[in-house]
Design brief:
Blueprint lengths: L1 H6 L6 E6 L4 E5 L7 E4 L9 E9 L6 E7 L7 E7 L2 E6 L2 E6 L8 E8 L4 E6 L2 E2 L3 E2 L11 E4 L18 E9 L5 H9 L8 E2 L3 E6 L2 E5 L3
Antiparallel strand pairs: 1-16, 2-14, 2-17, 3-13, 3-16, 4-9, 4-14, 5-6, 5-13, 6-7, 7-8, 9-10, 10-11, 10-12, 14-15
The structure holds 2-acetamido-2-deoxy-beta-D-glucopyranose (NAG) and calcium ion (CA).
Calcium ion binds next to loops.
InterPro entries: ConA-like_dom_sf, Pentraxin_domain, PTX_dom
Subcellular location: Secreted
Keywords: Calcium, Disulfide bond, Metal-binding, Secreted, Signal
């Protein structure tokens, strides 16, 4: 009993909403944290291409999960993970590539990750700039039925055990598209300006907060 209790996410208070979060953030206040935000929209079809963008602000130096898309067969189907300052890991279908990034002083970090099955190419953009592309999971298809959350790293569909990989800080401007954004639109995402429509987007986000995460105005 005790073991199975530890393996599932705790039952936390839940707040559901659908709203325009422009100029707002999710504030993850606990460190470490058991808290997370479930994103409700799922892709309608399995994915051969996708782009995920988000902006984060934290002074954590330990590992943390930002965006976790788990399916029944693969918990790391899509995962944006920061194992330490100076590195991002991008998982698709359970395998990952890493991107070395500057260990900047405390700034908001905007990242976009894009993947194309046909060539197995991963793009990584940070603060509007493309990194050298890498290869991952050529020919793979990402299943549509997924549990998508922010602020934790799932170890199975809808579940995580390890608050050591939890996010603490501020998260904003989360988007997912079922295609690759053009370079022009990647830069638009960085500026959060004139983005293509999508079912999972910050301007009309369907989400459920689990635990102690609050929506606050962004500090400018
Ligand atoms: C994925 O993108 C490629 C081009 O990069 C395109 O040929 C293909 O039709 C796209 N697949 C889907 C399902 O949209
Ligand atoms: Ca995992």
């Amino acid at each position: 009993m005790w073991v199975s209790f530890l393996l599932v996410l705790p039952v936390l208070s839940a707040v559901s909403a659908q709203e325009d979060l422009s100029r707002k953030v999710f504030l993850f206040r606990n460190e470490p944290s058991e808290d997370y935000v479930v994103l409700k929209p799922q892709p309608k079809e399995p994915l051969q291409n996708f782009t995920v963008c988000l902006r984060s602000y934290t002074d954590l130096t330990r590992p943390y999960g930002l965006f976790s898309y788990a399916t029944h067969s693969e918990d790391n189907e899509i995962l944006i993970f920061k194992p330490k300052p100076g590195e991002y890991r991008v998982f698709v279908g359970g395998e990952y590539v890493f991107f070395r990034v500057p260990e900047d002083p405390l700034i908001w970090e905007h990242v976009c990750v894009a993947w194309e099955s046909a060539t197995g190419t991963v793009e990584f953009w940070m603060n509007g700039k493309p990194w050298p592309r890498k290869g991952l999971k050529k020919g793979h298809t990402v299943p549509a039925e997924a549990f998508i959350l922010l602020g934790q790293e799932q170890d199975h569909y809808g579940g995580s055990a390890d608050s050591y990989n939890s996010f603490s800080g501020e998260l904003a401007d989360v988007y997912m598209w079922d295609f690759l954004l053009s370079p022009h639109k990647m830069r638009s995402a960085y500026q959060d300006f004139q983005l293509p429509s999508c079912t999972l987007g910050w301007k009309n986000l369907q989400y459920e907060i689990k635990g102690d995460v609050i929506v606050k105005a962004r500090l400018r």
